[in-house]
Amino acid sequence: MKILSINDLNNLRKRAQQALALREESSDTTSEQCCGLASGADHLQLLCCGGTGCKASNSHKIVDNLKAAIEENGIADKVEVITTGCFGFCEKGPIVKVIPDNTFYTQVKPEDAAEIVKEHIIGGRRVERLLYVDPKTNKTVSDSKHMDFYRKQMRIALRNCGLIDPENIEEYIARDGYQGIANALLNQTPEEVIEIIKASGLRGRGGAGFPTGMKWGFARGYEADEKYVVCNADEGDPGAFMDRSIMEGDPNSVIEAMTVCGYCINSHKGLIYIRAEYPLAVNRLKIAIQQAREYGLLGKKILGTDFDFDIEIRYGAGAFVCGEETALIHSMEGKRGEPTLKPPFPAEAGYNMKPTNVNNVETLANVPIILTKGADWFASIGTEKSKGTKVFALAGKINNVGLIEVPMGTTLREIIYDIGGGVKNGKEFKAVQTGGPSGGCLTQKHLDTPIDYEHLAASGSMMGSGGMIVMDEDDCMVSVAKFYLEFTCDESCGKCTPCRIGNKRMLEILTRITEGKGTMEDLDRLKELGEIIKDTALCGLGQTSPNPVLSTINNFWDEYVEHVKQHTCRAKQCKALVTYSIEASKCKGCGACARKCPANAIMGDIRKPHIINPFECIRCGMCKSNCRFDAISVY
Amino acid sequence: MKKKEEIKLACTVVQQVEEICDKHGNKPGELINVLHECQALHGYLPEEMQRIIARKLGVPASKVYGVVTFYSFFTMTPKGKHPISVCLGTACYVRGSERLLEEIKRILNIEVGETTPDGKFSLDCLRCVGACGLAPVVMIGEHVYGRLDVKDIRQILETTAAQD
Q1: Is B128's Cβ below 8 Å from some Cβ in A?
Q2: ipTM rounded to 2 decimals
Q3: What is the pTM of this model?
Q4: pLDDT tens by residue, A97-118
């Protein structure tokens, strides 16, 4: 069906809203009651997470089994199964949510499907064993609204993830989708739209936080026969998956925002640069683009106006540096993704030397809702200079791994202890790494710092794309710094000397330190080199690459000194600095460790305490993970 | 006299590669898309194939090689029947994926980027499959193994090898 006017769009929206009403309504009711066909419900929906994380735990099989069970019971006319985007609570995935009573089933297995249908859908009784158990009260919680993980969140960019079917454009339209572009095309000039974005205070979510409205204004200012709108979906920060989840769960929001940007800067062509490693996101985008074309929301004469806009997908091929906009543009041109000096900025000479505007996925996902709800609404959320919300991928040593979205200004403590449920296994919190390989570590003393662009930068880290990795007492900060530097050395494009050679030298020094061969002069040299690289590298990747090292030196100086002076690693992570031994009092002489030891370094007679030959031991940890009596100690 | 290119690829493969180039209008700007399709077709990008692409798109072979080696997604060595990818994203790293990698290297006796002599397994690292809730994660083929411990590795490899 082609949408030719705003009336068509509104009619479609009304129709689609009826279909979605069950889900919309239920999000406001606190139904304690369990709805099933037996208790009088006449229409039920089962939402199943179809994000990459849950798919890895076979969520697609859950969908198949649910459908089969529904078919078998002859209730297909009353019950629907819908695959949605990510719910965010990845730790407890795969997730199945029952509408209208909002029951939130966690860690569902394909074989649980039949029971959910029989007990809940037909019988109207919750399957208690699949409910979330609040670790604080030990009670089950059936509605996600009452879980600590969701209570402090505010979902704006993720507003449709886990709610709508990303492969059905009508569900997006039901959620006021394409209203922003319709209103812009029919009632607003491009300048007015840019003013709204400026007034909202939206800043780039990809890292540096440049004001989006201003960026659009620059691109509008350059005249050319062709201009381009580029969506940067090359999410390369290891451990971050915000952009992917948005594209998987709500691809139409990106398409709508790119169209709005096209209207604002007078461009007719959009390009999405996406990692080839994201097959699911690519597929969902393709479907969404196809549907938008069929509905007349992309292509010629959008909504009956004279505005034309279409979008193409370009694939990245695995290079972290391509997240930098000039490198990204070179990569789209079929070249090596090497950055170039700015100016000229892409707004002046970007793709094919034409004016180009590059925005990140999460930034774009905020645009449609700013247009429908207004700049004032958006600007009322967040802190003075950082408006709106930020999505973080919370991972590492934390109880509730997942994708979260919080207003700017939320403290680290709220994120880690309230939403994240604290550090895993009751260990002590040590640090949280934000901003990936370009960011730094925040520690205990930063727990009450409000998270926004300014505060993170002042603490020696940065917002980055939004990866947030929690570390506990078992993590060695020198090793962590080395890990990031290895990443940077791998990913450095090699164009400028400070990044190519400087980082390599820093990595060599760090390696020496983790082997217990470092000197105090090495520490000074690390700092000096880091500062020089920051000042002299060509692009954003190079200039921020020493951050993980400098920030760990600042915050964990003692740990570096211990490695150098005492040759010890308090986290027992640096292999060269630890010794494995068997506690004779605990060893039962079962021989499990000796059989598993790859180096044949463990000796002893059966039923008598064994010993480890330190000269043969390769410190692989195999014995420790195989000992059933906790007899292996590491010091 | 210019030395003639020595092509050992099957005629059908050569033809298919040329067709892919034609489909993209033989434009140099389409190089990365062409490489993606060729790798999907053949599994890897041997030197001969790069020469064919260079000739078709009218760019120096050195440029094609430069692009192939720049991006980690492209490979010049054939993958094993069961390609193993160990996630070294930060979330997996702090939950011990490096130890898993060491163990796989030790059992298969290959380094990262290599394939076992029998062609069964190849080993690579990747940065984040996005299943951080399951960290640490190892992918074998399309299958994701999550929440792994060093001691699970041998069993998984043996089961995978036994599938053939």
Answers
A1: yes
A2: 0.89
A3: 0.93
A4: 998 888 999 999 999 999 999 9
